[in-house]
Every structure is written in structure tokens, then in C-alpha cells.
Design a protein that fits this description.
It contains five helices and 25 strands. It is mostly beta strands. The protein has two domains: about 45-170, Sandwich (Immunoglobulin-like), CATH 2.60.40; about 195-340 and about 355-440, no CATH class. It is globular.
């Protein structure tokens, strides 16, 4: 009997081992499917409108993928925008659109039309007259990707991080009317102003060549202009100064300036006046020519040496992403508006402890009324751009509130909204009166 029990226990142990062995043998013979890897997608990015665009106008990005639509669900093309130079805070920003026939169109102006970093650091000494001006320009990279659920139910996300599209966005905006006119002529801001070799200023000359003409009272009056190039080019600056005795002097800057496509360059026009004999200057012309081509930009400045009215200087950001200077030769009136009241508690001596004296905060606002002085028709039309500017600085003689520049004290102000009449029927004594307030004064 004992022998029979021993035999049964031995068989039971052998049976358990056989079951384990059988499972291991079965596992070794079974092939599990490997996780399916997504095929590498190829993306194409198209940006109509050029490599430099204005943040306030439509910026169109078209993304195309070669990923087949069969076997996947929830397919979206992705567009990621990153500001690489810190000109726009925040980000990166991302948008997603379901593709149609492998293509999707993104409009990203709402993502990049943010508050730009207005670091004003280009009012430099006389040796600085042509320099890169990046405060009103943002360097943007655009990456196209896609996301979908594959046939295994796994979420896939693929990006073209190795080949981002780079472009520049300027803080500015053409009016809808101007934008539509350019679009109807198969043109754009990039084609008209940059490829068309124009200054980024709204001050038009009285010619069909779009050359600015400005009136100043002295050759030391600041005149600023900006440009951007359509490809990597060398810019040569020169000019001619005309004197009251009928003579003139020519000048060519010995320094040639290598410019990179997409960058914004600022030119201090008044620092190119050539007057070695200290004569009376009546007019000067500055030319910015592209080396090896016939393309050139001209800026005309008339000098009226008989101005005697007050001279007020205002720097402002125009609607094309550049800084310009407005010289006003009319009256200057400053008004102090004080609001609030002083409240003092009873100060009766009922005890050794006197009542606390409470003072309410007084609020004051300084409103300044400035008369522009005589302005030509072209200058009055140009002032429409100034009157709608969001970034205005008044030159003052007091201690500076903005300290990161060398020569000029500037006070942040804003233009009081209102209605302004521009008479374009005559060039007799015409002017515009406007009001400004000091920003954040209390």
C-alpha cells in the first residue's frame, strides 16, 4: 500500500512538471506581432507672401504631407510657431487642422501679433548710422507635423524638426484696403516694399518712385528710415548735399554693409550729410544702393534754415515695423489735470494717542497739445500713420525715463484718440494739432 502511494505521488509531481514544460514549449513556439512603426512622413511647407511679413495682416502657412489616409483615423496636420529671438514673449504656439487631400492651410497672424519687446537701443553716437534694428522684428521658425491614430490604435505624432521654415514678422499692419489692393495686383508687402526696393516708411514723395521727402530745420534733425533685403546683399550708402551758394558735395560711405535676408536695418539719414566747409545746407539726398545691381532707395530732405518756432521731436513706430521721427515746429501747451481729494481725520487731543492722519491718493494727468507746424501734403498724409501708432516717445530735456540709449532722453506717451482733418486741396500753411498724454503718470 505504501509503495502504491509513493508511486502516485511521484506521478503527480511528474505531471505538474510536464504541464510547466508543455507551457514553456508552447511559449517558445508562439510568435507575437511586433509594434508597427509609423512610416517616415515627408512634409512640404509653403508660405505665400514672402520671408518678411507684417504681424497684423494674414500670414498664410500651407502644410502638405504624403502620409496615406487609408488605415488611420483622427488625422490632423500640426503647425508650431516659435519665436527664436525673444522679441515676442511666450510660445511656442501650436495649431491643428484636419487635412484635405493631404493639405491644410494655417493663418498664424493671430498667434504672432503679440506685444513685441520694444527695447529702444539704437539712439547711438554719430559713429552709429547703419545698424540692425531687431526690436520691432521677430524671428520666427515654423514646423509642420501631423498626428493620427494608426491601425493598431496607437497615437502617432511626427514633426519635421530637422527642417524648420524661418521667416521674420514685423510689428505692423497694412489697412485692409491697402492689403486688398496689393493682393488684387498679385502682390504683397514683401513684393512691394522689400523685393521692390523701398524704404519701410509711409512718408511718400510727390513722385511715382515712392521716395520720401521730409522737411526739417537743421541738418542735425534726426531722420530715420529702415530697410530689409530680399536676399543676402551688400548695401552701399552715399549721398549729395546741396548748399545755398549753388554748389554741392558728394559722399560715399567707405564702409559697405552686409545685410541678411529677413533682418531689419535702420539708417540714420541725417548722419550722412557731407559739409566739410560748414556751408548753409538747403537740401540733401541719401542713397542706399544694392551692390552689383541698379536697385537703390533714395531719401530727400529739405532744410529750412529760417524756422523759429518751437521744435518738438517725437519718435514713433510706424505701421510697417520701423521707427520714424516727427518734427513739430508749432506751439506746445501743457495742461495738468488733478483728480481726487485730500481727506484728513479729526485730530482732537482726547488722549495721549492722537488720531491717525489719512491722506487719499491724488491722481494727476499731464495732457500736452502740440501743433505740427507747416506740413506738406505728403507729410500730412504720413501723419495719419503717426496718429494711429501704439508706440510713441517724446524727446525731452529732463532726466531720461528710458536709459538704454546714449544721446536722447525719451518719455513714453500715448496719443489721445480723436478726429483729425487732413486737407488735401492745397499746400498753403497747413498743420495738424494733436494731444498726447504721459503714459502711466500718477
Amino acid at each position: 500500500m505504501k509503495n502504491l502511494l509513493s508511486i502516485l505521488q511521484t506521478l503527480k509531481v511528474l505531471f505538474k512538471g510536464w504541464r510547466v514544460l508543455s507551457f514553456l514549449l508552447l511559449l517558445s513556439c508562439t510568435t507575437f506581432p511586433e509594434k508597427e512603426k509609423p512610416a517616415m512622413s515627408t512634409f512640404t511647407v509653403t508660405v505665400p507672401g514672402g520671408a518678411v511679413q507684417l504681424s497684423g495682416n494674414p500670414i498664410i502657412i500651407t502644410g502638405i504631407t504624403d502620409t496615406p489616409e487609408t488605415g488611420i483615423t483622427d488625422h490632423y496636420l500640426l503647425c508650431k510657431i516659435t519665436c527664436t529671438d525673444g522679441a515676442i514673449t511666450g510660445g511656442p504656439w501650436q495649431d491643428a487642422i484636419q487635412p484635405l487631400a493631404g493639405s491644410a492651410t494655417f493663418e498664424i497672424s493671430g498667434l504672432v501679433s503679440k506685444k513685441f519687446d520694444y527695447i529702444y537701443n539704437t539712439l547711438k553716437g554719430s559713429s552709429f548710422r547703419f545698424y540692425e534694428r531687431d526690436a520691432l522684428a521677430a524671428e520666427i521658425t515654423i514646423e509642420i507635423g501631423e498626428t493620427y491614430i494608426d491601425g493598431n490604435g496607437d497615437l502617432q505624432e511626427i514633426w519635421n524638426t530637422a527642417d524648420p521654415y524661418e521667416m521674420t514678422v514685423l510689428k505692423g499692419q497694412l489697412t485692409r484696403h491697402e492689403y486688398n489692393i496689393l493682393a488684387s495686383n498679385y502682390s504683397s508687402f514683401w513684393a512691394y516694399y522689400i523685393v521692390g526696393c523701398r524704404w519701410l516708411t509711409r512718408l511718400d514723395g510727390e513722385t511715382s518712385n515712392h521716395y520720401p521727402v521730409v522737411n526739417v530745420s537743421s541738418t542735425t534733425d534726426a531722420v530715420k528710415a529702415a530697410l530689409a533685403v530680399s536676399s543676402n546683399k551688400t548695401i552701399i550708402i552715399g549721398g549729395t548735399t546741396y548748399f545755398s551758394d549753388g554748389t554741392h558735395a558728394d559722399y560715399i560711405d567707405p564702409v559697405q554693409h552686409a545685410c541678411t535676408v529677413g533682418n531689419l536695418y535702420e539708417v540714420d539719414i541725417n548722419k550722412y550729410v557731407s559739409n566739410p566747409e560748414a556751408k548753409t545746407v538747403t537740401r540733401y539726398v541719401v542713397i542706399a544702393a544694392e551692390s552689383g545691381t541698379l536697385s537703390q532707395r533714395l531719401y530727400f530732405v529739405n532744410v529750412d534754415n529760417h524756422y523759429y518756432e518751437n521744435h518738438n521731436v517725437i519718435y514713433f513706430a510706424n505701421s510697417l515695423g520701423a521707427i520714424e521721427v516727427l518734427h513739430c515746429f508749432g506751439s506746445y501747451k501743457e495742461t495738468q489735470n488733478v483728480d481726487g481729494e485730500v481727506v484728513k481725520s479729526d485730530n482732537l487731543d482726547f488722549s495721549t494717542r492722537k488720531h491717525t492722519i489719512n491722506l487719499a491718493e491724488l491722481k494727476k494727468g499731464t495732457e500736452i497739445e502740440i501743433n505740427s507746424g507747416f506740413k506738406s501734403l505728403a507729410e500730412r498724409k504720413w501723419m495719419k500713420d503717426f496718429l494711429s501708432s501704439e508706440y510713441v516717445l517724446l524727446q525731452i530735456d529732463d532726466s531720461p525715463l528710458i536709459t538704454n540709449h546714449d544721446e536722447v532722453n525719451l518719455l513714453p506717451v500715448y496719443i489721445v484718440p480723436g478726429s483729425y482733418t487732413i486737407d488735401d486741396t492745397t499746400d498753403d500753411i497747413q498743420f495738424i494739432t494733436f494731444k498726447i498724454k504721459i503714459a502711466h503718470e500718477y
